[in-house]
Each structure stands twice: as C-alpha cells, then as structure tokens.
Amino acid sequence: MHELSGEQRYMIRITYDGTLYHGWQVQKGLRSVAGTLQSSFKKVFAQDITLYGVSRTDAGVHACDQVAVFNFSRPISPESLMQAWNNKLPNSIVIRSIKQIPVERNPHHGVIAKTYWYHIFTERPVPFNERYGWFFRYPLDSEKLKQCLQFFEGTHDFRSFSTGDDRGTDTIRRIDSARLEWSEQFSCLRIAIKGPRFLRYMVRRVVGACVDVAANKDLSIETLKTVLEARNPDHTLLNAPAQGLMLAQVDYEEGVDNEVVDDSWKR
User: Fold this and answer.
1) What per-residue confidence (pLDDT) applies to 74?
2) I want to staple 115 with a disulfide (CB 3.0 to 4.6 A). Which of 4, 74, 75, 194 is the partner?
3) 230 and 169 in one domain?
4) Domain boundary at 93, 109, 125, which?
C-alpha cells in the first residue's frame, strides 16, 4: 500500500452474506466480496481502488465486521462516500461505517483480537437461517463439546488444523477463548472463538474436530490431544463446512480504530 500525492486513506467496516461469493479476496473470473466492492466504487466515483482487508474470508464464509482500508484522492466526506457507495452495492453487502485514518495505517495495525462465530443447527433450520449454519443431524453432547473447545484455549501449534499448504511457516497460534453459546437470532448453538491471529481453515477444522468428538462416544479429549501433537493436517476428524462461519468482530487497541456501531442485530 503506497501513499500517492493527494490521497486520503479510509477504513471501512462491512457486513456481508458470503453465500454467493468465492471469498473476500479478488480472484480473476470469480465473484468476490472485495471485487464487488471495488467495481461498485468505480461505477460511482469513476476511480479504481484496491481494498486491503483484515481477514481473507473463504468462499461461503460470512462477516458481521470485516475491516478494510483503501486510498481515494477526491475530497468527500465519509458520510457522503458511504451513502453513495452503499446505493450501488447488492443487498448481500453493506458498508456500516467509514472513517478517515492516517495514510500509513494498514488494517492489521493495532488488532488485538478477532472473534469468529460458528453456528450449528441441531434441528432442521427454517429456510431463512439455513445458509448461516451447519445442520448437524446426529446427537451432540453439548457438555462434551464445551470441554473440547476449552482444550484448544491457550497457545498451541495448530499445524494439524491448518490447510496443510503452510509447511515451513509458523503455525503457532493463541486462542484466547472458545465458548459454546445459544444464538437467539438463528435459534442454534453458537461457538465463539477469539484470538489475535488464525491460520486458514483453522477455525473450521477446530470446530469440526470438536463436533466429531462430541458426537462420538468412542472419541475423547485424548483424541484431540493426539491429533494436535502429531502436527499433521492429514487426519480424519471432520472439517466444518464454510457456511456456518462468520467473522463476528475485530477489536483494536484502545484509541486506534474501534468504531461505535449499532450491533444489537447480532444477538
């Protein structure tokens, strides 16, 4: 991200339904969230921009609070910018806030935590909710599931719960909390996982493994321990499907970029 003469940098917070998109990142010939935002911007303001997001959500993954930055040279208030841009976006994407930030700031600066939600339906969901969770058809021991999630709290080498394409890279990550809740909004179980950084597929693989163990009387916490310590992603525990995953919140250091936005609809 290079500063150009006369340019201003803006930070946006976005909510989107990822069902119809091949992830956040721009991909040639495929519909992406960032690509849709950029093309809509050009239609309104006749200028190309490049969005840099705090998280590269995968195909089918949703976001309540994606954060991205971009440069723009035309003098315009953030309020006018947001209104005009939102008017050109499809219903599946909404910009919830825009603010001007220092030109040297990138979206990862000052991030202290990201929270991901994963929704699990234990009964067949109504059609309006189906695309936002995983319908798990087998009996699930919720207490055992809580214990499985707690096992992953702390700092571990999560190579066994990565894509397998990151050999030679640092796969040590910290999970600050992994909780099982109930979502009134979607009438389902909600797993909330919070930490500063995650590997690609890490949340989905952790959730899938925990659900697998919690639904199988022949598996235990020791199964998770064995898989974790093997540092091998080629295991047989489940990988949770993309549609149940949401980037719920991005938290920054105090005084950096936290935005006051009405989040009452997320309950």
Assistant:
1) 86
2) 194
3) yes
4) 109
User: Which residue range is the domain that position 216 belongs to?
Assistant: 111-247
Name the active-site residue from 17, 48, 58, 176: 58
More confident residue, 168 or 27: 27
Alpha carbon separation from 245 to 68, 82, 89, 150, 224 (Å, rounded): 19, 26, 22, 19, 21
Is 194 a member of any domain?
A: yes
pLDDT digits (tens, 9 = 90+) for 220-263: 999 999 999 999 999 999 999 999 999 999 999 976 655 545 55
CB 72, CB 84: distance < 8 Å = no
pLDDT digits (tens, 9 = 90+) for 115-172: 999 999 999 999 999 999 999 999 999 999 999 999 999 999 999 999 877 666 899 9
Same-domain status, 56 and 183: no
Known active-site residue 58: yes
Do 139 and 240 lie in one domain? The reply is yes
Give 251-257's long-range contacts (Cβ < 8 A, gap of 24+): 251/111, 251/112, 251/113, 251/114, 251/115, 252/110, 252/111, 252/112, 253/110, 253/112, 256/109, 256/110, 257/11, 257/67, 257/99, 257/101, 257/105, 257/110
pTM, two decimals, is 0.92
Residue 266 lies in a domain: no
Strand pairing report for 134-135 and 111-121: parallel
